[in-house]
Amino acid sequence: MSPIQTLKPIALVTAMALASVLQPAPARAAPAETLTVAGGCFWCVESDFEQVPGVLGAVSGYTGGTVENPTYKQVTRGGTGHYEAVQITFDPDRVSRERLLHLFFRSVDPTDAGGQFCDRGDSYRTAIFVSNKEESALAAQARAEAEAQLGQKVVTPVLDAGPFYPAEAYHQDYYKGDSLVLTRFGPKRQHTAYKLYRNSCGRDARVKQLWGDAAPFAGS
């Protein structure tokens, strides 16, 4: 074998090794993020956002109050300071925080300071919970855009995030549950009871009246 022929495979191996070193490393996926919002009945908020592409999951719970590990009865009775809230986990490579905030405002009545739809009281008010200045600025921007679109005063506050307590297991994924529950409509499976509640509460009708074609989840 000639010296030239010997050098060819050596040069090829060297070039391949150099190429592997110089090849850019694959981009790392962004870590999952969370957005915590209060929009009245947490069953409905959970149902709405779990259908959004890029949302990895949503947990119903309580936040904004002073009592540790509150129960549903304590929160709805009042006095704990908690909101019914939902903690949304999402993939920022697939859906942005800005997009989720946009959808949130258009899935509630942000002009109502006394609750949401048929659910009245402090625990059913709307709110957005933030952990830093960037999140606060994005929430404030989304609120301003909602107010401009509605031409009405938006009362949804942007609040500092505190401890979030998941609600009882009974409340998680209620909207698609199959357990038999006793309701004012008689014994119903959870998913049926949820649909009856949502319709009778007037949530979708009011959101549609307020936002028109911009309402993203009417009938969820």
TrEMBL record:
It is an enzyme of class 1 (oxidoreductase). It catalyses: [thioredoxin]-disulfide + L-methionine + H2O = L-methionine (S)-S-oxide + [thioredoxin]-dithiol; L-methionyl-[protein] + [thioredoxin]-disulfide + H2O = L-methionyl-(S)-S-oxide-[protein] + [thioredoxin]-dithiol. Its EC number is 1.8.4.11. Keywords: Oxidoreductase, Signal. The keyword Oxidoreductase applies. Pfam families: PMSR (PF01625). PANTHER family: PEPTIDE METHIONINE SULFOXIDE REDUCTASE, PEPTIDE METHIONINE SULFOXIDE REDUCTASE MSRA 2. Residues 1-29 form the signal peptide. InterPro entries: Met_Sox_Rdtase_MsrA_dom (IPR002569), Met_Sox_Rdtase_MsrA_sf (IPR036509). It comes from the Bacteria. This is Peptide methionine sulfoxide reductase MsrA. Residues 35-176 form the Peptide methionine sulphoxide reductase MsrA domain. One of its GO terms (molecular function) is peptide-methionine (S)-S-oxide reductase activity. NCBIfam families: msrA.
